[in-house]
Amino acid sequence: MKASVMESYGGPEVLRCQDVPDPRPRSGWSLVAVKAAALNWHDVLVRRGGYRSPLPHIPGADGAGVDRATGEAVMVLPSLWWGRDDSAPGPDWEILGDSRPGTYAELVAVPTECLVPVPSGLTWAQAAALPLVGVTVYRALFTRGRLRAGESLLVLGAGGGVATMAVSLAAAVGARVWVTSSSKAKIDKARELGAGGGVLYGDPGWPEAVRELAGGFDIVLDSVGLWAESLRVLRPGGRLVVLGASAAETAELRIRPYYFGQYDLLGTTMGSERDLAGLLALLERHRVPPVVVDRVFPLAEARTAHEHLEGGSGFGKTILEP
Fold first, then answer.
1. Where are the transmembrane segments (predicted)?
2. Do 119 and 209 have their domain in common?
3. Is the omega angle on the peptide bond into residue 111 within 30 degrees of 0, that is, cis?
4. CB 20 within 8 Å of CB 1
5. In a domain, 277, yes or no
6. How far apart are CA 259 and CA 155, in angstroms?
7. 153 pairs with which residues across the strands?
8. CA nearest 116: which of 293, 279, 1, 268?
9. Distance between CA atoms of residues 10 and 48, nearest Å
10. 0.90 exceeded by the pTM?
């Protein structure tokens, strides 16, 4: 089969399309003929060596395709062996594409329990883009964040897959949503998904500016690591939900304002199969637009796709198609 393989850690140039052996079938696993694979920032960290993946390695967590055994159109849940405790993953938990070959290939082997039918009406690209960001955002907003209709939510960033999914899901359940962004154009696109507006984070006073717009937020969804700034926009008793550190690896917080503010600081990651079931049920109950697809590249152009993702100019998900 054809696959995008990295033989070393580094920049996008380490991704090269090669012929590799097909994965071997085994009990409890299914082979999926990949029709589309979605890129995530997680893949960039894998490529850079952040997860010490074995080399040579095929990255890729998200995918959709055809189950070779049944002929069914399926999506891949990249969260493997979460366990039965919904509060946190168990010791065997891993993400597809970290230590095992991922979805940047014509075929991928996946535990059968991690396959679900593709929801009706989705293209292959939209189906591939749904599981990782969908489950991650569902867990962040609802399982961990306890978001309810009528509450206010600030999403840091407006262009990536997590942000666009967060705006869509929160608006669908009746929350009031705002965003931050590097460009007015992305804020305008977020409005089309249901956001009420946003501010440019290049302005050092953006926390005060966005707080003035909404009067304080019940929840801030922070995928970049700006904890101190996020706390400045929360109302008393608000929740800061953290799921990334793309802008900062450390944070310094003033302790007294934190506890006098009665704030919750909630860490979260990709979720379990129960979170996926909750996401699919939400999509059944509410009118939620499909995942925003920004650009589609051939599998052989994985390097270019990663360059596009890291460039930060896109709005929505970047897709590879074998």
1. 153-179
2. no
3. no
4. yes
5. no
6. 23
7. 177, 219
8. 279
9. 5
10. yes
